[in-house]
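cache lookup: miss for this entity combination. No prior model stored, computing from scratch. Input as submitted by user K.M.:
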Amino acid sequence: MKKELSSKTEVLVRFNEADPLGIVWHGHYIRYFEDGREAFGNLHGLCYLDVFKQGFVIPVVSVQCDYKRSLRYGDTVIVETKYIPTEAAKMKFTYRLFKAATGELVATGSSVQVFLSKDDSVLQMSNPSFFEDWKKQHGQDQ
Amino acid sequence: MKKELSSKTEVLVRFNEADPLGIVWHGHYIRYFEDGREAFGNLHGLCYLDVFKQGFVIPVVSVQCDYKRSLRYGDTVIVETKYIPTEAAKMKFTYRLFKAATGELVATGSSVQVFLSKDDSVLQMSNPSFFEDWKKQHGQDQ
Amino acid sequence: MKKELSSKTEVLVRFNEADPLGIVWHGHYIRYFEDGREAFGNLHGLCYLDVFKQGFVIPVVSVQCDYKRSLRYGDTVIVETKYIPTEAAKMKFTYRLFKAATGELVATGSSVQVFLSKDDSVLQMSNPSFFEDWKKQHGQDQ
Amino acid sequence: MKKELSSKTEVLVRFNEADPLGIVWHGHYIRYFEDGREAFGNLHGLCYLDVFKQGFVIPVVSVQCDYKRSLRYGDTVIVETKYIPTEAAKMKFTYRLFKAATGELVATGSSVQVFLSKDDSVLQMSNPSFFEDWKKQHGQDQ
């Protein structure tokens, strides 16, 4: 059985992220997802810059967010990021956002990334070897 | 049969919307969707401010985007926004983004909005009457 | 003599804040200034929300930034925010941004804010009493 | 006498650019300046991409903005961009923002850019020859 890999990080809502309704504009949640992915990468050795050094970039090819509750300026958000194993040459994450003060679920979402070679932007149809290694090291290969 | 309601608008990619890879950061597409919704509202009388004057706000409760091609600084994007009829007390739109210079499909996506009363933020379980009227006037009620 | 009042906070450069040159787009420094002001407010009891509760909003009427060095994705920035005493009914801050890893000065800047009454947006020609109190409590009145 | 070189462009305020006070967050004006510079470049042959093709990048080393009136979602802004001749190896612009509906002055500002060689990021101490040519062609050399 695969080990569950996840991370938690805190993001403080900026004044300039709230819209005229006083709530965080929905597009900014995509940033919080990225903050979550970044924290995951820092914790588990899969940072954007790590991947870049291996010769790949990992553009997002799909993103989705369901909004449950609003966030306001001054709120602290907990971003929980979970790695979702997949056979395909992709990186998939799901996200859960919580209001730190109350623990309420604020939003859920997911993203999918692919591997492109850094130099010629060619889409990788199978996982780069560094990523296969990463999977083995983190119990995600079986 | 319902009449198909849509709009097209052009958005110019800003320098500051492109990321270190030289391509538009994926989160900005959510802005382009909003630009598309705004153009739709201007064309068909369903602007955010129109809705606000009727006593409602229409927060996005779900958004989703699939990325097909990258956009670069200097590109012009055509945002095609289509109203998707639904029985529920919701507003649903789909989006198709094209590169103006080549006509290539860049991304597809969708969003769902609900109606909250402006004053007390109560979720409307049935369509506000102004929206029922709008649907009738635009051939979306049958 | 007035006591010098300042604060330091750390900001992590987000991937989406860097532009096609790989460096942080200059407009984002204005956000870092706001992050600095916020940290100052948290430390010294002069948060935006504190001011709001007193019945005032404090729009920025002037901002200025000089860029010395570039910042890249992955950098941590130290924002040093300093309160600048003034006789006028204004709040003035200066900022110094440093690269955390090297201590190099990245940018300097300043901002000026005024007081508007929250309800009718009337510009205050003299300091609100809560702000006079704050100045006294923080050794900024003489 | 030097010919005055300027441009005007219109920018529509986006919903997500307004803050919880309902007014455009001050940091976004820096984007409007960039939109103005871009329109100036398109009109007078001095686009970012033009300069890039000549082998240079032109980072902003100084920016300043004075806010006179607030902007709201739905407003159209006229950005007037004026080239300011200077002896130094720099590009300087001033900006005036007007509310299109009323003609009221909303903000004034300025920016300074320098020339770096694209390949090695070396600061140019004298104007690149393409820029000297541009100045001559546009009556800015004497």
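stored under new cache key. The CA atoms of residues 19 and 99 of chain A lie 18 Å apart.
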